[in-house]
Specification:
It is a single chain. By secondary structure, the protein is mainly alpha-helical. About 85% of the residues lie in helices and about 0% in strands. Helix 1 runs antiparallel to helix 13, helix 14 packs parallel to helix 20 and helix 18 packs antiparallel against helix 19. The longest helix is centred in the middle third of the chain and has 37 residues.
């Protein structure tokens, strides 16, 4: 990887990681307080409409963001065209959601969902207004500005949510937190961004961008539906309280898995897009991205599974104990999410959105199996099914992306196997400490400290390339500060 590209990537990773770390940290702390103030039932009610908001957001974006990022000569006419299209679709989708609220409420047998759905739907319009500002910042690999915006929005909305919960607003405190966060995100993206829409729309620009973005829209829509379908299954076939336990497990998992995936996608896609024509540099950069990312991912996800029980009991109490087993299973599926994202990014970089769509269709057909297991055999069976489909999905992703840059899945596995084995050893040692019968908070501290120390000793001894690369990135970040 060239020095200029490496510097750009390190800078992007630094700020994107800071953005996700601070935002996730604030959300995590706010979530802990809210989990102590509210019940699993209240979290479950909000979880019931998660899929509808997620699907609507995916439709509004329509894959245009990635199309604009990939287009090296994007002009104002392109940005304006996408802005007005997104806004128009946002209004249409909100109206559909508004009038569908009674049906959603009946489906889940929760009367409160009518008003909650209609109020939460406003997020769609708020987000649609800022899609272009966010896309431009990602295209420019300017995550410093996004970090500022995220921190302001996360802290402020957290205060709103906790304040409302303390005053007895119940589930509405979660609604208030979500809406205020999105509103402040949009407000400050407009304040920090110099781009402003002009009254122009180009059918030619729309057709060009939609030709690439439409396939990403369909694949993204399939992915969004599948990723959130568990909320529907649990909410409909089980109870709001059980859904609340699942949402809490997912939020613990998201601290590492989703945030690592987001960082990888946000940084690797625009950076790799700049060298899409140089096959040798692309493969070299891609290979190092995978090795570095998976070292961190395996350590975080397997470590999280090892400390799940004392972590939950210490932070949010025994009323959330049921989510421990959910979290441990989810961690095994979640550790592959960043790897999925990297392999799929190559398809986008190479302009193969057709393959991207084909893959998503295949994976979602296979993904029906754990959903059926969940309906008939319980939530845990569904989650274990998702672990197996996650592994199978990786081989599908890697098979197609490997063809494009000559990096077969077997070589990928060989590259990441050492860090996987090391992480398994460290996690097993951390988990074994829970058998000593110490107080939960002592166990948690002992597990975390021993895990970090043992991992550092092993990596310092072996001097793996990916570990040295991480050390160099950390050193660069410190030097920059």
């Amino acid at each position: 990887m060239s020095e200029s590209l490496k510097k750009k990537a390190v800078n992007g990773v630094s700020w994107s990681f800071a953005d996700n770390l601070v935002t996730a940290g604030v959300s995590f702390l706010v979530g802990i307080v809210l989990a102590r103030l509210l019940s699993p039932h209240e979290f479950g009610i909000l979880g019931m409409i998660t899929i509808f908001i997620a699907i609507s957001t995916s439709i509004i974006d329509s894959g245009f963001s990635n199309a604009l990022i990939r287009k090296t000569d994007a002009k104002d006419i392109d940005y304006n065209t996408v802005f007005y299209f997104n806004l128009f679709i946002g209004i249409i989708i909100y109206l559909i959601l508004f009038f569908s609220a009674p049906a959603i409420s009946n489906f889940f047998k929760e009367p409160q969902l009518i008003e909650i759905t209609r109020v939460m739907g406003s997020i769609l319009l708020i987000n649609a207004i800022a899609i272009i500002q966010r896309t431009i910042l990602v295209k420019e690999v300017d995550f410093k500005t996004q970090t500022k915006v995220s921190v302001i929005a996360s802290v402020s909305s957290g205060i709103v949510g906790i304040g409302m919960a303390a005053e007895g607003f119940g589930v509405w405190s979660l609604v208030g937190q979500q809406i205020s966060r999105q509103f402040l995100n949009t407000l400050f993206l407009w304040i920090y961004s110099h781009w402003r829409p002009a009254l122009e729309f180009s059918k030619k620009s729309f057709d060009e961008l939609f030709g690439f973005g439409s396939k990403l829209l369909l694949s993204g829509l399939l992915n969004t539906i599948y990723n959130n379908i568990y909320y529907v299954v649990i909410g409909h076939f089980y109870s709001a309280s059980q859904l609340g336990q699942y949402t809490r497990a997912e939020q613990f998992n998201a601290i590492f898995s989703s945030n690592l995936t987001t960082v990888v996608q946000r940084v690797s896609y625009p950076v790799l897009s700049t060298i899409q024509e140089d096959q040798v540099r692309l493969k070299e950069a891609y290979r190092m991205v995978i090795k570095v990312t998976m070292l961190v991912t395996f350590a975080c996800m397997l470590g999280l599974a090892a400390i799940a029980k004392p972590l939950v009991l210490v932070l949010i109490g025994s009323k959330w104990l049921q989510c421990v087993s959910y979290l441990q299973i989810i961690c095994f599926a979640g550790m592959l999410y960043p790897l999925h994202a990297i392999n799929l990014n190559i398809l986008q970089v190479k302009g193969r959105s057709d393959l991207f769509l084909k893959l998503e269709v295949l994976k979602k057909i296979i993904g029906v199996v754990p959903i059926v297991l969940g309906i008939f055999y319980g939530i845990k069976c569904m989650l274990w099914g998702s672990v197996f489909t996650s592994f199978f999905a990786y081989f599908l992703n890697a098979y197609y992306s490997a063809d494009l840059i000559d990096y077969p899945s077997l070589i990928q596995i060989k590259d990441i196997l050492p860090t996987f084995i090391i992480s398994c050893i460290v996690a097993a040692f951390m988990w074994s400490l829970s058998l000593l019968g110490m107080a939960n908070w002592i166990t948690l501290i002992a597990q975390c400290l021993s895990g970090i120390i043992l991992a550092l000793i092993i990596y310092e001894k072996l001097k793996l390339k990916e570990y040295l690369e991480i050390k160099q990135i950390v050193h660069s970040m410190k030097k920059k500060k």
